[in-house]
Design brief:
globular, 3 domains, TIM Barrel, eight-stranded parallel beta barrel
Length: about 750
């Protein structure tokens, strides 16, 4: 018998969750109305969750809850109250992005199964080991990976007691997940907070290649790749779509369930995916999975492709027949929708009613007879009732005490106190104990877990820190800047430097003050080369935006700093990095505004960093961004493209906002905002908080003009850190135009 592979389905609302369960999902994932990465979905309330859990488990379906956003400091108490409730439910797992949540779960809520979100863009073996140390039992692998890369990472994951899941159907993002800031910069709606406005899907001024939607990818579908995914040991097939409606969820899950049954029962894959074309799609591609990253992955239309696909397969001979075909498809979809709705409306997720009768007389035990539609039971107090005390028991007091039962899968329909004598007392702790006994029986004889208090963190030291200046460069010609011993110089390493490892080692050996800066994305051989570089160099310290490199530095006992693209937004994330991985310092996310930053408390002997000047990188993509803009003589992306291609261009949306496309040798494609960030306010706003302020002086040309050489710019920034107001004014005059929107608006 074949090993079973989980079919994991989305649920943006109750109807979609019911549809997924009805269609045969092995597991569903959904979000509450807080702390999840699909705020556009209807989501569900905590009270809804209990009914969903009961329905799902009755149908052998697990439920995973999404807590997959970055958490702000002020939200931590609310988050903890959610976790304290969740721990007493039968939830099967939680999906997490924020390191602070990982910290709380692994330290105080060991009963949860922890799944690492796609927002962590897991693409190398070091990242899996990093997440394993956070007690993650499952990782969602990056959508950009091919089957060989998935095979290797799945083997590594299994060796470390971790399961893997792969997105097999639904939307592709043009950017690596978790490091896209386009929506955040443009509208304050951060993808890392579940509020992405999808500006990449929007219409742009027609490009030289004649494209209106140059960043719009087709949808992902691995429907015909099931055998390969099964062969490499993937544990879960994940369907995207928490903002899709119930008929979409039902149709896609039902199609995949049929494919799985055919594979299990007959070792044959179905060759008909026509039902998948009948619901929303932007046409389908499996090119990332196949390692064939090509221009055919794009589609110049963000709307559904269902009707167009119907026209293509039927080859209608006239416009009237095309319209008739479209009408018939619409009628079929409406009929299907009504049929599914009629069935799911019969699936009950309501809470179970409780009828409780309280009885007792002076000198006897307080008794509670509990009845549900299926059973009844009796519990009683440990202490006897007395006729003297401060507060006598009555219906109102008992109702208030038992109201907490509504946080379970039950609700108190009726409370009968007619059999309770008058003017009787019992310690209030006994009422709490009685309630726990009721919950124990209702919860299948499992003790309720008491609430955990939020760990109290030390307030920031009142000792003012004199901050240093740190500078990022990417050209060997700029290493002369290392001569200034009062400035830390970081050197940006590329996404792919496997052919230049020896050259980079020589560069750092010959310039001992130069500090390696590792990028966010390091896949396959490039990750291996990066680790080899790290071991050969034996640097005193590094900055890394990749947790795989962080893990290796930690294992080597090397000092490391968490870079700005690790998205640190709260004190508990800092604590997690220090306690779990001996991190020496961290950048605070540039997505935060002043009031969101000021509450963050750093651990002892830990440094905080913040970028006050940089070109704003909006996204990084494994795809070629020039196919749809200026065109390219090659139709596919290959290793030589990464190593040798160097291009730039721009796109402009209909609001006349321009974005710069950049491709440099050894790096993936990126999009930058036209105007750089310059934040001269934070120095005065938060004196003594940061150990270092950072400026990015790489040769990335934007519309921001810098009317001074790099040495002069460094001197001005140093003076600015020292409180020289003239230098501050000069910086704002010499660097123009610039923006500081995120620091003012936050996320």
């Amino acid at each position: 018998m074949k090993r079973k592979i989980e079919l994991l389905a989305p649920g943006g609302d109750i109807d979609s969750l019911k549809a997924a369960i009805l269609a045969g999902a092995d597991a569903v994932y959904c979000g509450l109305d807080k702390f999840n990465a699909r705020n556009k979905a209807a989501n569900i309330s905590f009270e809804d969750l209990q009914g969903i859990l009961r329905l799902a488990h009755k149908n052998n379906c697990e439920v995973f809850l999404t807590l997959n956003i970055l958490i702000l400091e002020r939200e931590m108490p609310i988050l903890l109250s959610v976790l304290n409730k969740l721990v007493n439910t039968s939830i099967d797992g939680v999906i997490v992005q924020d390191f602070g949540i990982f910290y709380l779960l692994s330290k105080y809520f060991q009963g949860f199964k922890i799944h690492a979100s796609t927002q962590l863009t897991t693409h190398n073996e070091g990242q899996i080991k990093f997440l394993s140390q956070f007690d993650a039992n499952r990782v969602n692998l990056s959508r950009e990976l091919n089957i060989d890369e998935i095979s290797h990472l799945t083997s590594v994951a299994h060796e470390n007691g971790v399961l893997t899941e792969v997105f097999v159907h639904g939307s592709y993002c043009i950017s690596f997940s978790g490091i896209c800031y386009m929506s955040s910069v443009l509208s304050g709606k951060s993808g890392n907070r579940g509020r992405c406005s999808q500006p990449c899907r929007g219409r742009y001024v027609t490009t030289p290649e004649g494209k209106d939607y140059p960043l719009n990818l087709k949808d992902n579908s691995a429907y015909f790749d099931l055998r390969e995914l099964w062969d490499v040991g993937v544990n879960s097939l994940k369907i995207e779509g928490r903002i899709k409606e119930f008929e979409y969820v039902y149709t896609v899950v039902n199609s995949w369930r049929k494919q799985l049954r055919s594979f299990y029962d007959h070792d044959v894959l179905l060759d008909d995916n026509s039902d998948l074309h009948k619901v929303f799609n932007r046409e389908f591609s499996n090119s990332y999975l196949r390692g064939d990253i090509n221009k055919d992955m794009f589609i110049d239309n963000p709307m559904s492709n269902s009707t167009l696909h119907l026209s293509e397969i039927n080859q209608y001979s006239s416009d009237d027949k095309r319209k008739q075909g479209a009408k018939e498809l619409y009628e079929e979809k409406e009929k299907t929708r009504k049929h599914i709705k009629d069935i799911i409306d019969q699936l009950n997720t309501d809470k179970i009613p409780l009828m409780i009768e309280i009885s007792g007389a002076c000198g006897t035990f307080l008794k509670a007879t509990v009845r549900t539609p299926d059973r009844s039971f009796l519990v009683q107090s440990e202490y006897r009732l007395v006729d003297e005390g401060i507060r006598f028991l009555n219906h109102k007091i008992l109702l208030k005490k038992l109201r907490a039962l509504r946080d379970t899968g039950y609700y108190l329909k009726e409370l009968n106190t007619e059999q309770l004598g008058a003017k009787l007392c019992i310690p209030f702790s006994e009422l709490t104990a009685l309630k726990r006994k009721i919950l124990f029986v209702l919860n299948d004889s499992k003790e309720a877990i008491l609430p955990i208090a939020l760990p109290v963190l030390k307030k920031p030291s009142t000792i003012k820190i004199k901050p240093r200046l740190s500078v990022l460069i990417s050209s060997p010609k700029d290493v002369l800047l290392c001569k200034d011993s009062s400035v830390d110089i970081y050197f940006q390493l590329p996404n792919s430097f496997k052919t230049k490892t020896a050259e980079f080692i020589d560069l750092f050996i010959n310039n001992e003050k130069l500090i390696p800066w590792f990028p966010s994305v390091l896949i396959g051989e490039d990750y291996t080369a990066a680790v080899d570089f790290l071991y050969h160099l034996q640097a005193k310290g590094i900055v890394t935006n990749n947790t795989g490199i962080a893990y290796e530095a930690y294992k080597m006992g090397m000092a490391w700093i968490a870079g700005p693209y690790l998205n640190i937004t709260n004190s508990y994330s800092l604590l997690a990095l220090k306690e779990n991985f001996n991190c020496s310092g961290s950048f605070i996310s540039n997505e935060l505004k002043y009031t969101q930053i000021k509450d963050i408390k750093k651990p002892d002997d830990f440094d905080l960093y913040y970028s006050i000047y940089h070109p704003i990188m909006m996204m990084t993509s494994r795809q070629c961004l020039f196919h749809q803009v200026t065109g390219c003589e090659k139709s596919i992306m290959d290793d030589s493209c990464i190593q040798h291609c160097e291009k730039s261009s721009s796109i402009t949306n209909l609001k006349k906002e321009t974005f710069l496309l950049k491709k440099t040798k050894g790096n993936y494609h990126s999009i930058y905002n036209a105007v750089n960030l310059l934040n001269t306010d934070i120095i005065e706003d938060m004196p003594g908080r940061f150990s270092s302020f950072f400026i990015d002086l790489r040769d990335i040309k934007t519309e921001t003009i810098i009317e001074l050489n790099k040495a002069g710019i460094i001197k001005l920034f140093k003076n600015h850190l020292s409180g020289d107001s003239d230098s501050t004014q000069q910086l704002e005059h010499i660097i123009h135009p610039s923006i500081n929107t995120q620091y003012k608006e936050g996320i």
